[in-house]
Amino acid sequence: MILKNVSDYCIEQAAGAKSQHVHIWQLVMSDLLLLSASELAAHIRSGKTTSVAVVEAHIARLRQVNPTLNAVVCERVADARVEAAKADEAVAKAKKAHKLASLPPFLGVPCTIKENFHFAGMPNTAGLVSRIGRKVADDAPIVANLRAAGAIPLGVTNTSELCMWMETFNKVYGRTNNPYNPAHTVGGSSGGEGAIVGSGASPFGLGGDVGGSIRMPAFFNGVFGHKCSPGLIDNEGQFPGPSGGIDRHLSSGPLCRRAEDLEPLVRVLAGDRAVHLQPVSDVDISKLRVLQFARELAISPDADQLGARDRAIEALMAQGARVEAIHLPLMAKALDLWSAMLATAGSDLTFADHLFGTRSPRAALAEFGRFAIGRSDHTFPLIALALFERLPEWTPKRTAKLRAQALVLKRQLEDALGDDGVLITPPYPTVAPKHYHAMLPPFNFVNCAVFNALSLPGTSVPTGLNSAGLPTGVQIIAKEGNDHLGLACAMALEKSLGGWVYPIVKVSK
To answer: Is the pTM here over 0.90, yes or no?
Structure first.
């Protein structure tokens, strides 16, 4: 059975436990690594299991797979165990006082946090060597929201350097590997989150997305992820931090193994702003229009991904949704539109500033020389980004024209979507490529990034494994402010297509 190693661990932990706790370990052996965070929280509140049991099961899975995945780069297991015991005490007190309903929604449920978010006492390097040893004193607002909701972080997870590439690798922590095949990428920049959630070692995690950094890792690792509409979730408290108009294109949000967790997690993360998220339960799939591109004009998907798109559309049609084809020629300029929108967002600091303390191209050229002889502290994609990121500034007329075209495309797509439409399209043209293969060609991420340029919400949904055992998937795009439509479709597609598939990780010896 795939949970054998977890079962053995839990049996050892249960040795000497009181007889009334035996049923808890039996539940651990069969279910705890498969359940949603919402189900785990309900079981903890009802007494069907305990937070200690849930946390120990996930720690055991973490210890089993992380040597192979390198997803969690700094654990806080001892603190998590203390917090789990306190959660069980809180449940016992609430039960005695008949106040179980007043408990936080995710009390006692483990999770993980992307390393670039401020998390008190934990490292905050974003993969930058110059920040080794840097820790923060306070939690980011959304990290504080998760902890106030009762979630128990097990640790922080790996990112690409400065969170700006789709291969999760840096010179601080190294490379993260895919739970379905360690020879393949996990995506980025929230790749550590995607990998550890996809492995079953964390029910959910926290990521960020400015060019696909939630949706691609969710897709590559076979789980769900949501990039929200601008302003729904606070982006403050992360490094690199948002500045200027970047907030319109950056989104913090959840990755999770079960679709039913998406809405409650978005509401927890949003805090007081959650009033702007319409109820998912109000969505009637049979009354939705499902849009697809008559021709995928960003980067053309392969057969696996076209099949994933078609399966998703057919599943929603089977529930009564109507399908429509649209043609938007400006989608062919996806990369240029994304680049122009980010370049004109008014950010205070460039990536060259973070890397070298200067914007001079000479610094990046000199770093290429150090990289060539193996003496650079930086990764190739970031050096290249630092060299070329200011190109839009040097062609202001072209950049202004592209920005105007991006706004036209946003209006065209939102007019087509309306308040009853969703667009289903592949988040990447292939399943997870092998490590470093994403460099050639380097721009396939624009299938996700273009929707950051347009400031539209997007939900990543797994659609099963291909013949090689790697996850396929789609992203569901809605009009700005209509996040609830994508979340509802994610739940509907999970029921039809099966959702996340527990992977048998090829553990390193």
So the answer is: yes
